[in-house]
């Protein structure tokens, strides 16, 4: 291996009693890909925030090309040649690609935007690394994959010699992931060094030469990928692992909910649906895979009652649904686990008690002639806390003080408590640590056992493959055929996710 | 530096910043009093004496607090649901106009019928007035801050028009002023011989009712949910537009009561200077009370005391009475910072 | 016929542009703030302060331009106060803005009373006089009206050109547009979100104060209470009307002012004499609300408007 380009030395950072990073050291060599592996909350994000001057470490230092970075200076890392592609892209949607790329690259106080020469440079980079992009497109019109390309170009445009990618494959199809890996391979051959942050073991084994495993803020091991296995890495990452719940075979029951030729309007954040049909049977988990922004939100919103079809029909128990709203959805016994538990799922400034009755605050036993029965609400909440193992100081605690996992447990409890017939689980395990993920999966499988019809929407293909009895893929608001468990491979699903298989299907129909 | 939430704030953490905010307000006011050539201690002393120093002063403060409790409650209710009603001034005048229309002899009812009818009609007028910008907000997405503000100007001109036209007092000798309310339409005094009318009593009752609504009813629960997080409320199936409109009706009605009580309780007539900005001061009252309905009563008394005290101080010490407005605006700004500091601390990052 | 003739006189358009000038200045100020993601409801109070301070500067012998500079400086100070609370501490932009308006207004009135305790009628100064720039008269339609204005009007118009140029043609403007859309895009490129937003609010508030100063230094020649009279709120409506674009907001201000000039003339006409004057005075406010209703459905609001930014948090 070549010279060391980035050296983290003894980084420690505490937030109150929480040790976010403890004596973390890491060396990255030229042309090398190191994977930083760890669960949610293991300290990966804090470490990157320190590297990029958003936080100042309590002790330790960062060295780039032999020079120590001044702590707490966001520009220092950028100027030293470190670029980062964040998991949530940092693009201004109303600006064009080129505007996003040149933003902040020169002096703010110049009279001229260096548009022309920048365009030349951008196109050269795009060529060299096979990152196809239209410099004048508005970011709001780009797909997720294209946006990631813009982020990578942004870093390369700044002449980054070190590229940090935070969960870059979370939003990509398997094929797009492959293309990204190809780009990274070419780039490292030309001398770029990469830190690849992920929790996907399979990908880590493919792309990285070295893996550093972070657990509870500490590096617990550094391994060469040649000399380790995915299983060993998993054990190291989790510590004392809980095993994933077993999926018991079960015969599915009658159809509970059905969409027939449903279309919806495209709204600002959710792609509209085009002539979609799907059915949910009792005792069955239906998985919906796809790259985010391809209609999953519309499907979720349909279940949640937030939108109504512009064409087509929804059926519940074989009867068409006429009035449809969030309230109707609750009343008809649909348990809704929203994608965004912080914004749609809970009211941060409400107590646990206030949050647990939010869907049923005007129904028995929580309300009586317009008065809230706080006693009933409190005892319901205590029951949830006990039964779903919500770790909290008490039912009067404001929910913003809870961890994501405990928040999700309360939401699960709130909706599962009255044996729902249909369950909408939209990204139910996103951002949770593995223990909590297994807990969520266990609850969904138990509900399936009890005969609930479950729709599981997830961007994590592994989760879909593991839990679903039936799998659909959505792309551009269309739906693939239904696949039975075990009858489809990830790469086949990938074909549908990218939209390629839809095109094939159409040509077949045409001929 | 960054702000970090404190999970369990200590007692001093919770009370010290607000106390310091009030102390700084007094300090700044003292400096300004000195600039105007006053002795700061004398000026502050005169303000306190003018506010609570005598039976007369105290009653004056209670009278002044009455409309402020109503507008303060109006703002507190609306802001809690994140309905930015800056139009309490217009809603106040709408209540006053209705009181004048009904109470100047057109209806020959006994007080036990007339006064409740006036209350209901005044509240309806204020409620409808706030309903317009609220509908524009929920239906068309028009920001209600600007519309309610602009409606204040429009409505005051309308009052001026009415006072020079249909509502003009024939005996008013050209001065824009309405006829006087008949005796049956006047709010009686709480205690004979004391210059304090039942408007104050109604204000206190209103505060308690709002507190009960907020904490015990499903409507209050829904209002708070919509204010804290409208997205979650919608997701959970709350009819947020309906809740917004109900909030608007309540808020507008409360502000209108201020106008009703000023006309029927205190002044007996409507003029263009009925309110020296009670609608705007209501924002200060509500914020100082941290939007708590019972806190509104205390905050209104404090704000009224400053106003009344500053008036009498101004006459005695020659320091402009605008000192009161400065003190209140300063208190408002410092208080929002203080509240932040009760929940967060600065942390080196 | 009488009504149509009003629009055809040069003096009508001269008046319209004069009425528009303070609105243009303050609207550009608000637009800059909002483009950076900060709603500045301090605008009304800052205009009041600017009106008084500008006049006071001239009154005590600093000269007219001295007054202008002083007003701008005081506006920037108030902007700094606003920004340090809303941007640095992330406090509610609604509450802080209204608080600043109340504070600036009461401080101004207090200062006026302290500085001039004895006066009964407001003292006058020698205000800016129109300068004639003959060459402008060749511009079609508005030319003759443009050629006879005071220097502050020319300043107002150049502000539009400068704002437009900076926003769309310079790296600084690019950063401003980005910070109002997604502050993380700016932070990730190593720029300071705080710096940009504080800067925008300070500069914007300076312009608002200039708008206020126009009233006392150019439109009138003295300061009196209530002279701003809701113009600040109208400017906020104009920013929405202009869809956060300088040239559109400018056109909005001219349209608005033309309407205002028209209603003044209509009042004096034979038709106008029949209608109570309050109706005419209401018109500008009605017009603002109507503009908001018509426009706000379609406008592209800066996505991060009113969203505070905390480092490292997402």
TrEMBL record, chain C:
<dbReference type="InterPro" id="IPR001851">
    <property type="entry name" value="ABC_transp_permease"/>
</dbReference>
<keyword id="KW-1133">Transmembrane helix</keyword>
<feature type="transmembrane region" description="Helical">
    <location>
        <begin position="194"/>
        <end position="216"/>
    </location>
</feature>
<feature type="transmembrane region" description="Helical">
    <location>
        <begin position="95"/>
        <end position="112"/>
    </location>
</feature>
<feature type="transmembrane region" description="Helical">
    <location>
        <begin position="154"/>
        <end position="174"/>
    </location>
</feature>
<feature type="transmembrane region" description="Helical">
    <location>
        <begin position="64"/>
        <end position="83"/>
    </location>
</feature>
<keyword id="KW-0812">Transmembrane</keyword>
<feature type="transmembrane region" description="Helical">
    <location>
        <begin position="223"/>
        <end position="243"/>
    </location>
</feature>
<feature type="transmembrane region" description="Helical">
    <location>
        <begin position="127"/>
        <end position="147"/>
    </location>
</feature>
<dbReference type="Pfam" id="PF02653">
    <property type="entry name" value="BPD_transp_2"/>
</dbReference>
<protein>
    <submittedName>
        <fullName>ABC transporter permease</fullName>
    </submittedName>
</protein>
<keyword id="KW-0472">Membrane</keyword>
<dbReference type="GO" id="GO:0022857">
    <property type="term" value="F:transmembrane transporter activity"/>
</dbReference>
<feature type="transmembrane region" description="Helical">
    <location>
        <begin position="38"/>
        <end position="58"/>
    </location>
</feature>
<feature type="transmembrane region" description="Helical">
    <location>
        <begin position="6"/>
        <end position="26"/>
    </location>
</feature>
<dbReference type="GO" id="GO:0005886">
    <property type="term" value="C:plasma membrane"/>
</dbReference>
<keyword id="KW-1003">Cell membrane</keyword>
<feature type="transmembrane region" description="Helical">
    <location>
        <begin position="278"/>
        <end position="296"/>
    </location>
</feature>
């Amino acid at each position: 291996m070549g010279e060391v380009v980035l050296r983290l030395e003894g980084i420690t950072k505490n937030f109150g009693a929480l040790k976010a990073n403890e004596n973390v050291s890491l060396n990255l060599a030229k042309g090398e890909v190191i994977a930083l592996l760890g669960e949610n909350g293991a300290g990966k994000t804090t470490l990157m925030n320190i590297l990029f001057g958003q936080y100042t470490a309590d002790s330790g230092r960062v060295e780039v090309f032999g020079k120590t970075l001044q702590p707490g200076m966001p520009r220092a890392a950028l100027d030293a040649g470190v670029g980062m592609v964040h998991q949530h892209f940092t693009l201004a949607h109303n600006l064009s690609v080129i505007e996003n790329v040149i933003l902040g690259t020169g002096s703010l106080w110049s009279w001229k935007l260096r548009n022309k020469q920048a365009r030349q440079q951008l196109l050269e980079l795009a060529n060299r690394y096979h990152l196809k992009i239209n410099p004048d497109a508005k970011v709001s019109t780009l797909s997720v994959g294209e946006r990631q390309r813009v982020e990578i170009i942004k870093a390369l445009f700044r002449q980054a010699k070190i590229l940090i990618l935070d969960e870059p494959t979370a939003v990509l199809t398997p094929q797009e992931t492959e293309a990204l890996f190809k780009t990274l391979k070419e780039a490292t051959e030309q001398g770029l060094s990469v830190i690849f942050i992920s929790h996907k073991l399979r990908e880590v084994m493919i792309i990285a030469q070295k893996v550093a495993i972070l657990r509870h803020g500490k590096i617990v091991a550094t391994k060469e990928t040649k000399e380790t296995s995915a299983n060993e890495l998993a054990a190291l990452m989790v510590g004392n692992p809980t095993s994933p719940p077993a999926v018991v075979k079960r015969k599915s029951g009658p159809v509970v909910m059905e969409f027939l030729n449903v279309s919806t309007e495209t709204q600002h954040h959710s792609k509209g649906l085009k002539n979609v049909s799907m059915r949910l049977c009792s005792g069955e988990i239906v998985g919906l895979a796809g790259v985010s922004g391809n209609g999953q939100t519309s499907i979720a919103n349909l279940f949640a009652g937030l939108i109504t079809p512009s064409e087509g029909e929804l059926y519940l128990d074989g009867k068409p649904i006429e009035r449809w709203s969030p309230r109707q959805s609750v009343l008809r016994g649909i348990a809704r686990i929203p994608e965004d538990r912080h914004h749609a799922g809970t009211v941060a400034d409400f107590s646990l008690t206030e949050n647990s009755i939010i869907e049923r605050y005007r129904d028995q036993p929580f309300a009586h002639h317009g008065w809230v029965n706080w006693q009933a609400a409190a005892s319901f909440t205590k029951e949830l806390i006990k039964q779903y193992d919500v770790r909290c100081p008490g039912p009067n605690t404001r929910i913003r003080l809870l961890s994501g996992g405990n928040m999700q447990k309360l939401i699960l409890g709130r909706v599962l408590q009255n044996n729902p017939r249909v369950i909408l689980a939209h990204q139910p395990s996103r951002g949770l640590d593995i223990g909590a993920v297994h807990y969520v999966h266990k609850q969904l499988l138990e509900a399936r056992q009890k005969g609930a019809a479950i729709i599981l929407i997830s961007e994590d293909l592994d989760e879909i493959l593991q839990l679903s009895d039936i799998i659909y893929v959505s792309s551009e608001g269309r739906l693939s055929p239904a696949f039975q468990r075990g009858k489809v491979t990830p790469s086949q699903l990938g074909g549908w996710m990218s939209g390629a298989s839809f095109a094939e299907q159409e040509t077949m129909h045409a001929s | 530096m960054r702000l970090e939430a404190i999970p369990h704030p200590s007692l001093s953490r919770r009370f010290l910043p607000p106390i310091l905010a009030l102390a700084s307000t007094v300090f700044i006011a003292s400096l300004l009093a000195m600039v105007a050539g006053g002795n700061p201690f004398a000026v502050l002393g005169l303000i306190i004496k003018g506010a609570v120093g005598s039976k007369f002063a105290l009653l004056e403060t209670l009278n002044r607090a009455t409309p402020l409790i109503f507008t303060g409650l109006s703002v507190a209710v609306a802001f809690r649901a994140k309905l930015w009603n800056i139009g309490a001034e217009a809603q106040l005048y709408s209540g006053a106009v209705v009181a004048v229309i009904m109470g100047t002899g057109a209806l020959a009812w006994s007080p036990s019928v007339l006064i409740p009818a006036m209350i209901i009609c005044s509240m309806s007028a204020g409620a409808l007035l706030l309903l317009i910008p609220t509908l524009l907000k929920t239906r068309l997405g028009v920001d209600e801050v600007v519309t309610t503000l602009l409606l204040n100007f429009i409505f005051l001109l309308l009052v001026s028009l009415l006072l020079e036209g249909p509502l003009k007092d024939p005996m008013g000798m050209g001065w824009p002023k309405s006829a006087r309310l008949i005796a049956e339409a006047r709010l009686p005094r709480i205690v004979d011989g004391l210059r304090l009318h039942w408007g104050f009593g109604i204000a206190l009752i209103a505060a308690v009712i709002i507190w009960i609504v907020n904490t015990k009813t499903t409507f209050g629960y829904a209002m708070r949910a919509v204010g804290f997080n409208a997205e979650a409320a919608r997701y959970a199936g709350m009819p947020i537009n309906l809740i917004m409109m109900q909030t608007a009706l309540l808020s507008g009605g409360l502000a209108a009561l201020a106008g009703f009580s000023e006309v029927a309780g205190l002044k007996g007539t409507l003029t263009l200077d009925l309110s020296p900005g009670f609608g705007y001061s209501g924002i200060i009252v509500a914020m100082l009370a941290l939007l708590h309905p019972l806190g509104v009563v205390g905050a209104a008394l404090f704000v009224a005391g400053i106003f009344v005290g500053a008036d009498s101080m101004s006459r005695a010490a020659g320091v402009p009475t605008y000192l009161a407005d400065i003190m209140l605006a300063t208190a408002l700004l410092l208080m929002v910072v203080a509240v932040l500091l009760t929940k967060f601390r600065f942390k080196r990052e | 016929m009488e009504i149509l003739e009003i629009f055809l006189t040069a003096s009508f358009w001269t008046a319209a542009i004069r009425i528009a000038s303070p609105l243009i200045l303050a609207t550009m100020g608000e637009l800059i703030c909002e483009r950076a993601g900060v709603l500045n409801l301090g605008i009304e109070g800052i205009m009041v302060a600017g009106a008084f301070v500008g006049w006071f500067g001239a009154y005590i012998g600093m000269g007219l331009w001295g007054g202008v500079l002083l007003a701008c400086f005081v506006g920037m100070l108030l902007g700094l106060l606003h920004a340090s609370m809303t941007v640095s501490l992330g406090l509610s932009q609604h509450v802080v803005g209204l608080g600043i308006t109340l504070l600036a207004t009461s401080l101004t009135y207090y200062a006026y009373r302290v500085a001039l305790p004895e006066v009964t009628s407001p003292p006058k100064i020698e205000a800016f006089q129109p300068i004639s720039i003959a060459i402008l008269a060749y511009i079609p339609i508005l030319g003759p009206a443009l050629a006879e204005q005071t220097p502050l009007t020319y300043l107002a118009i150049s502000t539009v050109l400068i704002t437009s140029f900076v926003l769309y043609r310079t790296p600084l403007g690019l950063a401003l547009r980005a910070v109002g859309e997604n502050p993380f895009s700016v932070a990730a490129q190593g720029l300071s979100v705080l710096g940009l937003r504080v800067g925008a609010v300070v500069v914007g508030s300076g312009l608002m104060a200039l708008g206020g100063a126009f009233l006392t230094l150019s439109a009138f020649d003295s300061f009196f209470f209530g002279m701003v009279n809701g113009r600040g709120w109208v400017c906020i409506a104009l920013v929405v009307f202009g869809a956060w674009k300088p040239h559109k907001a400018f056109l909005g201000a001219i349209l608005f002012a033309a309407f205002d000039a028209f209603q003044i003339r209509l009042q004096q006409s034979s038709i106008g004499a029949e209608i109570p004057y309050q109706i005419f005075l209401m018109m500008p406010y009605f017009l603002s609300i109507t503009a908001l209703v018509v426009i706000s459905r379609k406008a592209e609001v800066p996505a991060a408007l009113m969203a505070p930014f905390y480092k490292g948090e997402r």
